[in-house]
Amino acid sequence: MAEPIVYNVTDDLVDRLIGLAPGAKTYEVRHFREKVAAATQGSYDALFDPALPGLSLAERLLVALYATRITPSPLLAAHYRKRVAEAGATPADIAVAESGKPSDAATPRLAAILEFTRKLIEKPVEGDEAALKTLPAAGVSTPAVVTLSQLVAFLSYQVRLVAGLEAMKALEGQPERAAGTPPAPFPANTAATAPGAVIKAHGFTNESLEWKAWLDVVNVETATPEQVAVLEESHPKAKVSDYYLFLVHQPEILRQRSTAFNAIMYAPGGLSRAERELGSTYVSRINGCVYCASVHAQRFEQLAKRNEVIAQVFEDPATAGTTARELAIGKFSIQITEAPASVNADSIQALKDAGLNEGEILDLLHSDAIFAWANRLMLNLGEPVFPKA
């Protein structure tokens, strides 16, 4: 069994890159959710563990450099550029990751890895079964496919977390502004449905769906003790879920990811559970993840006892929202999903104008960012299974 990863706050990569220090407002807000910070760092440590088999450390760092260049995230790209050079990647391979042209890679294996990365970063819905199966064809084993998929999905989360925290820090340094006038709800968007009603629009639904992996999952009967322990920690139904049974090919990466997810979505206080689910549904709708949108639409309705805003999100997320607060949550969720580099102090101020405080803004940032991660796994490792008609 792998040694447990121990979190040391003084080694926190996100804090160091952004320049967050004890005593500053954004630092204190972030570390109120210490479990999230610890699992974020734990995920980074697990994904870049030099001893992790399947993909070399240099390959993983080339993926990280490539992903953070094309997103883009200058802070993270500079970090990974330094690390990949230290890891011994060739200048030619680094040049390919910098140029954004997978076809120029020195080997078919690296070309396939970087092309898969490009699809998941730029348009995750294109990470379909055909895209996934280019990896085994290029000599990437199933456990290494899990590593690569988790890595690209984690980088998508990390980029958005850093962008949001940078924006929060930027606003922290400005004079306190008077609250602006929140936008009025769009009067043309009147979608309403009775609680419990089935909603279907543009391929999205709030019906209960199943999910099926495209590659071999772990057999619980022959799983290692560590794999079984991680499944039991992750979710009550993990042992019968293709999703968890596939991800547990790399148990420590799944452990850190599950810890982050559970701390983000279920921690008490801060942003309401319903609004975290709403942010997740906006993100899933934008990314085209039918399965995640279904699950979190249902959870929103269970918590809020209404679903009219879900009908709106499925129909047109850009105009969805029954209140100024929901409109602001939607606008931020769309921006951080589609263009994280554009998120700035004004983006955070707009949330404050709608009544969110710093802790609630952090929770929204976390829930939006973790679905950059979750959507990419659901979209690139398998497919939803719809109820039989």
TrEMBL record:
**Which InterPro entries did the record assign?**
AhpD-like, AhpD_core, CHP04029_CMD-like, CMD-like, Uncharacterised_peroxidase-rel
Gene3D superfamilies linked to this entry: AhpD-like (1.20.1290.10)
UniProt xrefs under Pfam families: CMD
Which protein are we looking at?
Uncharacterized protein conserved in bacteria
A GO MF term:
peroxiredoxin activity
Q: Which NCBIfam families match?
A: ahpD_dom (TIGR00778), CMD_Avi_7170 (TIGR04029), peroxid_rel (TIGR01926)
Q: Which domain of life is it from?
A: Bacteria
The species is: Achromobacter aegrifaciens
